[in-house]
Design a protein that fits this description.
209 residues; alpha+beta; 6-stranded antiparallel β-sheet; 4-stranded antiparallel β-sheet; 5 helices; 13 strands; 23% helix; globular
């Protein structure tokens, strides 16, 4: 996993812990991840697996993509209205304009756990629709198990390359290119590549309001 991912996850974990005023102990209990591991992740010393990152997101009742994007400030020029007292009192003047700091979200588009699994963010979480979209790539033979997500979370799958199976409600279901499926992901579920080429599929995740 890249240093960018490590830093982004670390920053977002620190941020949400501070906002909620959660100790490492409380975070560990809510997320099912050890205090030692959480501390290492926050310090950028350890790279969380996809499974652990999902546990952390679920523990905080957050979408996965929350931990894959980071807010930063960028300078922008803003024309000054002389009657705008806020504009006169904040920022720095540059000629006839004022430089303000504007918050933007920087998204880490690719999250590669190892040679077996890669996640590309197609759309980060949208608060209006309650949806985020990822493209997952599995190497031949790779299997990924996921613990239950938040209550009411629904996953939609569309296979774009290869052949896969998913396991939910004690049953394996096979999907080929163009096939699609939908299920509640607030229960344990498993994905696996059963083909002889890398598997790619879209994972559309809907969170309840």
């Amino acid at each position: 996993m890249s240093n960018t991912i490590n830093k982004t996850v670390a920053s977002q974990l620190k941020k949400i812990r501070a906002e909620k005023a959660w100790s490492l102990e409380k975070t560990s209990q809510a997320c099912g991840v050890s205090k030692a591991m959480l501390g290492q992740i926050e310090r950028g010393e350890s790279s969380p697996t996809v499974a652990k990152l999902w546990k952390i997101a679920t523990g905080f009742s957050l979408p996965l993509s929350y931990f894959l994007q980071q807010e930063s400030l960028v300078p922008v020029n803003h024309d000054i209205d002389v009657q705008d007292s806020d504009a006169q009192n904040n920022g720095e003047y540059i000629g006839d304009a004022k430089q303000l700091n504007k918050p933007i979200n920087t998204l880490v588009e690719n999250f590669t756990q190892d040679k077996n699994l890669s996640i590309d963010t197609v759309f980060a979480y949208d608060n209006d629709t309650g949806i985020e979209v990822f493209e997952l790539t599995f190497s031949v033979g790779h299997q990924q198990q996921s613990t239950p997500h938040q209550l009411g979370v629904i996953e939609h799958i569309i296979v774009t390359t290869g052949t896969m199976q998913y396991f939910v409600d004690q049953k394996w279901t096979t999907l080929k290119v163009g096939d699609k499926a939908k299920f509640y992901a607030d229960k344990a579920h498993i994905y696996r590549n059963i083909g002889d080429i890398p598997l790619r599929f879209l994972n559309i995740i809907h969170y309840p309001k």
